[in-house]
Design goal:
heterodimer, A: 87 residues, mainly alpha, Arc Repressor Mutant, subunit A, two-stranded antiparallel sheet, 38% helix, globular, B: alpha/beta, D-Amino Acid Oxidase, Chain A, domain 2, 2 domains, 6-stranded mixed beta sheet, 10 helices, 19 strands, 27% strand
Chain lengths: 87, 380
């Protein structure tokens, strides 16, 4: 067993199984398995998942549509955003 | 892809997949669903997953209650865990006029059989220990409200529909719709033509674009609504908390993340789905008033999706005057997910039986020619 997404505890086997089930894009794998939705937001796992998916589909990694990068880049406490409204 | 089908459904969100499932369940399986992106890539997959029955119009309350009955049995029916939690919805009143309105609405909800109640600030604090009860005047609470994981519901509907014979095509975009003498003849996609007489317009924020393809003017307008998720935490919050005054909503998902959003009255209608800093600032500022301790939570991600908004905040359902076999199932104005189980069954009844078990005539597109009474409880 090889853990690929450490935040959400997802293994290589689970990723391959999902691709076999028809989740053939990175966005779909992300929603189906929650890979890349934890504190690291895919910075650790997404490159590995891209590699697994590209290999399974017989494509180059460059041909895969990447997932949307969403803010913030790193987890930050909410109060950092709220200070300007403080009286 | 099939080149001919009895029904073509445009849109692979909860509405489109729900209609596909319910049609197949009623025996109509010669159905093709087309989705321009992946399933649940639009509003369904971007929403907060809330399932609320506390509404202000009789029709919405009934529809939501019927849908909850279906959500309650959905794991079994679809053979998938939709991560459904019935932790309730706590709707806080922060202004005097809300207290009066809420009490009146609870009366109507109770009359229709809903277990909602008006409670004091201290009773609300018993339900949510972190609540800053000093800033609220009361709240309504309904235990059978809750939330689920929208992507799982769509997966369940789509898989079961496919098993029964429905063809689902992802990454298939509708380019035009051919009609002759008011009758639909075919749907043209980027992957070829599908001959059909019946089209279901379940395209959410893009429904009005589908309408345009057959010369039907629709009043729906897409509005960006932003949303965020925190890191996972131990279970600290049972209900979904909302305030209509502030436009905020948030809940804790089964996996531990707090997911919530806040509406922006100044947001113009557009197809913009970019994330903004202003949104997180506004969300945090309001969250700090309601649950001060939650300002210490770590945000991991923010995103946005569309509310497909109609002038009366109620959906557009049923036949289209002038193009009779274009079936509308859109315009949910921010609460499509929660009513979809019942609505999609009604749409399937309309197509297969020619009539529905709950009347939907009042929600026909043609109502916008006259005056309308709208749903007042819209949040986020």
């Amino acid at each position: 067993m090889k853990i690929v997404c450490r935040c959400e505890d997802v293994t290589e086997e689970e990723i391959i199984e999902a691709i076999d089930q028809g989740y053939t894009t990175l966005e779909e794998l992300k929603r189906h398995l929650r890979v890349g939705t934890g504190p690291c937001q895919g910075r650790t796992c997404m490159k590995i998942i891209e590699k697994i998916l590209a290999k399974k589909l017989g494509k180059n990694i460059d041909e895969l549509k990447k997932t949307t990068v969403r803010p913030p880049l790193k987890p930050v406490p909410l109060y950092i955003y709220g200070d300007e409204d403080e009286e | 892809m099939k080149s001919k089908a009895e029904v073509v459904i445009i849109g692979g969100g909860i509405t489109g997949c729900g209609v596909a499932y319910n049609l197949a369940k009623k025996g109509l399986t010669d159905v093709v669903l087309v989705e321009k992106n992946y399933l649940a890539s639009g509003a369904t997959g971007r929403c907060g997953g809330g399932i609320r029955q506390q509404f202000t119009t009789e029709w919405n309350i009934k529809l939501a209650m019927e849908s909850v009955k279906k959500f309650e049995k959905m794991n079994e029916e679809l053979g998938i865990d939709i991560e459904y939690e019935q932790g309730g919805y706590l709707i806080i009143a922060v202004e005097e006029n809300e207290v009066k309105e809420f009490k009146k609405n609870v009366k109507l909800q109770n009359k229709l059989g809903l277990d909602s109640k008006f409670i004091s600030p201290s009773e609300a604090k018993e339900i949510v220990p972190y609540l800053n009860e000093e800033d609220i005047l009361g709240a309504t609470f309904c235990q059978s409200d809750g939330h689920a994981y929208p992507f799982r519901v769509v997966e369940g509907y789509a898989k079961r529909a496919e098993e029964m014979g429905v063809e689902i095509n992802r990454f298939t975009e509708v380019k035009s719709i051919k009609k002759e003498n008011g009758e639909i003849k075919s749907v043209m996609t980027n992957r070829g033509e599908i001959k059909t007489n019946i089209v279901v317009n379940a395209a959410g924020g893009y429904s009005r674009e589908i309408g345009k393809m057959v010369g039907v003017k629709m009043p729906n307008k897409p509005f960006r609504h932003e949303i965020l998720a925190t890191e996972r935490y131990k279970h600290i919050l049972d209900p979904m908390i909302i305030s209509f005054k502030y436009g905020i909503y948030f809940s804790q998902q089964r996996h531990g993340e707090i997911v919530g959003g806040i509406g922006d009255p100044d947001e113009p209608s557009s197809y913009n789905t970019k994330s903004s800093l202003k949104f997180v600032e506004r969300f945090t500022s309001v969250l700090g008033k309601i649950l001060p301790a939650f300002k210490n939570l770590n945000i991991v991600r923010q995103w946005a999706g569309f509310y497909d908004v109609t002038p009366d905040a109620q959906p557009i359902l049923g036949y289209t005057e002038g193009v009779d076999t274009l079936i509308q199932a859109n315009g949910y104005s921010g609460h499509g997910f929660m009513v979809a189980p019942k609505v999609t069954e009604l749409i399937a009844e309309l197509i297969v039986d020619g009539k529905t078990s709950l009347p939907i005539d009042e929600l026909n597109l043609k109502r916008f020619e006259g005056e309308t009474v709208g749903e007042a409880y819209v949040v986020g």
